[in-house]
Amino acid sequence: MQPLWFLSLIGVALAALPFHGLFHGRPAHGFVDGGARRAHQQAGTSIPSDKYPDVVTDFYPQKVTHFDDTKKDTYQQRYRYNGKFSKKNDIVFLLIEGESEAAEKWIGYDKYQWLQMAATHGADAFQLEHRCFGQSRPYPDLSANTLQYCLMEEALEDVATFIQAMNEKMNYTNPRWVTFGGSYPGLLSATFRSIHSELTVGAVASSAPITLPFDTWEYAWSMEETFKTVPGCAEAIQDSFSHAQQMTLDVEQRKKLNTKLHLNPPFTDSTPYIEIDNFLYNVFAVFQDIVQYSMDGRSEVTKGKDGKGIYKLCSLMQTTDDPIDKLWNVITWSNDVDGNAPLTEFANSYDAFLVYLRNETFDDENGLEQASNRGWLWLQCSQLGLQQTTDQGRNIFGQILPINYFIRMCKDGFGAELMSAQNQYDRTAALRKKYGTGDYKATNVVLPNGSFDPWHKLGFYTPDEDNGVVPILIDGTAHCADMYEEYEGEPADLDRARKIVKDNVAKWLNH
Ligand SMILES: *[C@@H]1O[C@H](CO)[C@@H](O)[C@H](O)[C@H]1NC(C)=O
Ligand SMILES: *[C@@H]1O[C@H](CO)[C@@H](O)[C@H](O)[C@H]1NC(C)=O
Ligand SMILES: CC(=O)N[C@H]1CO[C@H](CO)[C@@H](O)[C@@H]1O
């Protein structure tokens, strides 16, 4: 449970976000940490506290930019070190962080898989926070002046200079570094291995999107496939979304939506289309959030089928006849199991959302994650793309989320000039050409993916035995499932996947 002061702060965010949940595929606390929270909830255990005596937090003076020698500014990049497992054998593990504050438990809680491997190999463990998230702030706010340096290329070079600096600081003579990362940091881990192979001996890249489409309809397509594994579920979802969309178009029916879904502010006769898109997006996001972490911590779900996952969602879609009541049931249940205050309304204002999005204050101290969501949207709009639309044509959600909605959001969030549609296409195309064509080449990389994870469609699946490139598709698991602690009763395939990861890491280390 969150402390009470936290709940009162949530009230502020509620005006903009429907609940403290998923934002563009990014859950509260970031991709990996959000998943960890849920895995613990499903297992009925509490989240390990953020107090680990073996962990030392420090800051490294990092260049603001690695691509302009005339610019000498530096910032303090946060990192952590855990020497608990160290056998002083120059084996060093690095967890690359991504679109959130780096959580201490990820380098302290030794049941996470990468730390289990650190124990096996007697490795020194480091965790590096991503620039522009958490305390790692190139400049004091997230205005355009800072955002121009919040780029994937810079983050990759941060990793390079960090490794070199630690080699010196720790007096490693023949260091063997292995990088780890899940989701977007999985992409960083994989890419770093391919561009800086001289600094590491291998990389684990969990649920890494190796292809970077701008219009990522594959995500909704995968959700549909996952819902289709439960009889009747996809049909029920299609019926509810189709009704919701139809009702937004009719002034009388809108009133019904207002009441049944407790929309605040309610729709009126003159509600503009952007607000309707925004409404449909917010409903869709609730479903994304549930699918993306469905089977992480599978044991509780399979025992009671009551965890936050597709099975409970699908049963809620059968408990009443009214297609809109079904949506409200899913929305409130999803909010409640996350431990949030009971939901009395569903935020329904794109304008309020923009106030939240445009806020340039770093706010990682207060739990609102405004800055992390702004930072994540910036990475998407300016480089990664990965906008989760429903542009695949016929599908169970309907044509509710066109790419235009996201293009407009990028413009509204960061300015029409910087984020004209053309700029968005050009910038994301440039990064895709560099790192996101899907034609991935490297040596010594393991790339696990979960079959239920909507992101798995962008994963890499072409093995290259000669070069030690090892993709794994894990049956029946979701996002980054291979990174968390083991659970009793978990799917057998997860065990197989972990073994492949561990065997490869051992091979790289000759250990
Ligand atoms: C590295 O070597 C220097 C110089 O010998 C020494 O002062 C320093 O304490 C060493 N650092 C570590 C982490 O062993
Ligand atoms: C921006 O966010 C900060 C930190 O959450 C908050 O104190 C401030 O009031 C916000 N500004 C606006 C204009 O909402
Ligand atoms: C994108 C994708 O899902 N690719 C492959 C993942 O792995 C399965 C099983 O190995 C393949 O059938 C998919 O084509």
TrEMBL record:
Stored PANTHER family: PROTEASE S28 PRO-X CARBOXYPEPTIDASE-RELATED, SERINE PROTEASE F56F10.1-RELATED
Name the record gives this protein: Peptidase
Pfam families attached to this UniProt entry: Peptidase_S28
Biological process, per Gene Ontology: proteolysis
Keyword match Phosphoprotein: no
Gene3D superfamilies, alphabetized: alpha/beta hydrolase, Serine carboxypeptidase S28, SKS domain
Keywords linked to the UniProt accession: Glycoprotein, Hydrolase, Protease, Signal
Family note: Belongs to the peptidase S28 family.
Gene Ontology terms for molecular function: dipeptidyl-peptidase activity; serine-type exopeptidase activity
Signal peptide positions on this chain: 1-15
Source superkingdom: Eukaryota
Source organism of this protein record: Pristionchus mayeri
